[in-house]
Design brief:
The chain is mainly alpha-helical. It contains 16 helices and 4 strands. The chain has a 4-stranded antiparallel beta sheet with strand order 2-3-1-4. It is elongated. It starts with 15 loop residues before the first helix and ends in a 10-residue tail after the last strand. The N terminus is likely disordered.
């Protein structure tokens, strides 16, 4: 069996917008990896303790944990291209200032961590908007390949950027890689200005969501989405243990392999080349292995190489090990990233991905700091052996959490809820709102009905409901009331727009148990207050 044309690893390149933005992102990623290698090597020179060197990785990833959710809310509420232009402009300014400081030899360990944190903050506000924009560039059937190509972009840049940075550091000095990073932001800004961004459909009858409410909606969706939660369990454990290698790699290269910046760049490049090969092989591997098996295979490969780094001393073998590490790394990350994309409808995509990224980079930050601390308290060998063992144990424990559950779910809006009948003076900010739905169910169907309606609970809560419950009339057997609350009348009207075809299928299962010629009776109750008293 051969992959069809939609399973081709290069299929998304048929779409011009995706190709242009992918190339621009590749150039920007090369600059980012040049900065990453330069920062790691500079810190190893300024403060060679394992903890402080590992804190460079923490300073890079911690901002995503801190700011990804508000960034995702902004990306779902406002124009994503405008947000991307703003954040890349900020990163250009920060990268330029840091390059100037390095050139003037004014950088301290504290300043290095500060500017790394600032650039990480820019990345935090970029990532949800960028990832949620990918489905707007390509058709749905090409999404898995587009996500894999995004991984190729990162890893191709990892193959080019570190090697180039190492060469520039050795030949021309420390400042040049940081200057190149600043220039790379100009390229992606130009590509974003070229992009004819599609205008999303907006319901002008409803007020725009507030940022805090949008953040709460994103958290609520993630909490009640089984496909997304299962995905986050996998990424949390993998990133925590696998990041032992990333956090300690500069000091491993410097001390264990007695190498210079050029070797460190080659090692990072080998990892990137391995990841590219792994991404290109993914379509064929997916024919033989399911998502959970791919993640388990990639984790075992990664863990074994981390174990090798604990005892290895031959630079040539280290380059080969880095290549194999890259294969295992991309098998895991590409599979998990596709799983996260497939778990989300468009209305909450950026916020859901932001929650995913919080877990992703939070685990990276914690892992880098923890393994750096452990290496300082014991030794690099003991820390890497512990991380290797932990990764294998965790993937065995997490195997039961199924990935890519959203692959065959239809998340397009069904728009099948009828407009609610209300009095004329209901305002959008009125609320909270309670919705009651009355069902009449035959006695023989009671148990099956309850099982079905409790499966509907998570769908209601994902789309905005809280305080959900089902009650049976004490005087009339088979008469049930489902109720749930929402924050405001506007929130309930948004719920109408967010119900998907996958949700409709669950609702149809519940409605099949209702007896009578008429549909279940639906009533809306809005919180009432005495004159002069406000909600809360």
């Amino acid at each position: 069996m051969k992959p069809n044309k939609h399973e081709s690893a290069l299929a998304p390149f048929r779409h011009r917008t995706f190709t242009v933005l992918w190339l621009a992102a590749l150039i920007s990623n090369i600059g980012t990896w040049m900065h990453s290698v330069g920062a790691g090597w500079l810190m190893a020179s300024l403060s060679p303790t394992p903890l402080v060197v590992a804190l460079v990785q923490t300073a890079t990833t911690l901002p995503v944990f801190l700011f990804a959710l508000p960034a995702g809310a902004l990306a779902d509420i406002f124009n994503r291209r405008s947000l991307l232009l703003l954040t890349h402009g900020f990163m250009f300014a920060a990268a330029s200032a840091f390059a100037a400081l390095v050139w003037m030899e004014q950088v301290t360990a504290e300043l290095l961590l500060l500017f790394t944190f600032l650039l990480g903050t820019g990345s935090a506000f970029t990532a949800p908007a960028w990832q949620s924009a990918v489905p707007q560039m390509i058709p749905r059937e090409d999404l898995p390949q587009a996500v894999a190509l995004g991984g190729i972009s990162i890893n191709l840049s990892r193959a080019i950027g570190p090697a180039l940075a190492g060469m520039l550091i050795v030949t021309y000095g420390m400042a040049l890689p940081f200057a190149a990073n600043a220039i790379s932001f100009i390229i992606i800004i130009a590509a974003l200005l070229w992009w004819k961004y599609p205008t999303p459909a907006v319901n002008h009858m409803l007020p725009p969501e507030r940022v805090v409410s949008a953040m709460k909606a994103g958290m609520r969706y993630a909490w009640h989405s089984q496909p997304l939660k299962h995905t986050m369990w996998h990424v949390m454990g993998f990133m925590f243990f696998a990041n032992a290698a990333w956090g300690l790699l500069p000091i491993i290269s410097k001390n264990q392999f007695s190498a210079d910046a050029a070797f460190f760049g080659l090692l990072m490049g080998a990892i990137g080349i391995g990841a590219i090969l792994g991404a290109l092989c993914l379509p064929r591997l997916k024919i033989r292995l399911n998502a959970n098996q791919l993640v388990a295979l990639g984790t075992v490969i990664t863990a074994l190489i981390i174990g090798y780094f604990a005892v290895g001393s031959d630079p040539a073998l280290a380059i080969i090990a880095g290549f194999i590490f890259g294969i295992g790394w991309i098998l895991v990350l590409a599979t998990i990233n596709v799983s996260a994309q497939q778990a989300l409808p468009d209305w909450v995509r950026a916020r859901g991905l932001a929650v995913f990224l919080m877990v992703f980079f939070g685990s990276m930050s914690l892992g880098a700091a923890f393994w750096g601390w452990l290496a300082g308290e014991t030794s690099i060998m003991h820390a890497l052996f512990a991380a290797s063992t932990g990764a294998i144990v965790f993937t065995g424990l997490a195997y039961r959490f199924k990935l890519q559950q959203g692959q065959y779910l239809d998340f397009t809006p069904s728009l099948h809820w009828p407009e609610p009948v209300v009095r004329e003076n209901v305002t959008h900010d009125a609320g909270p709102v309670i919705i009651q739905i009355k069902y009449n169910v035959a006695e023989n169907d009671r148990e099956d009905f309850l099982h079905a309606i409790y499966r509907l609970k998570a769908a209601r809560q994902r789309d905005g409901a809280y305080h959900w419950g089902v009650y049976e009339d004490a005087a009339q057997s088979g008469c049930f009331i489902e109720h749930f609350a929402e924050e405001s009348w506007a929130a309930h009207l948004r719920h109408h727009e967010r119900v998907t075809h996958a949700d409709k299928a669950l609702q149809d299962t519940v409605l099949a148990f209702h007896q009578g010629q008429n549909a279940p009776e639906v009533r809306h109750y809005i919180a009432a207050y005495p004159p002069g008293k406000k909600a809360g």
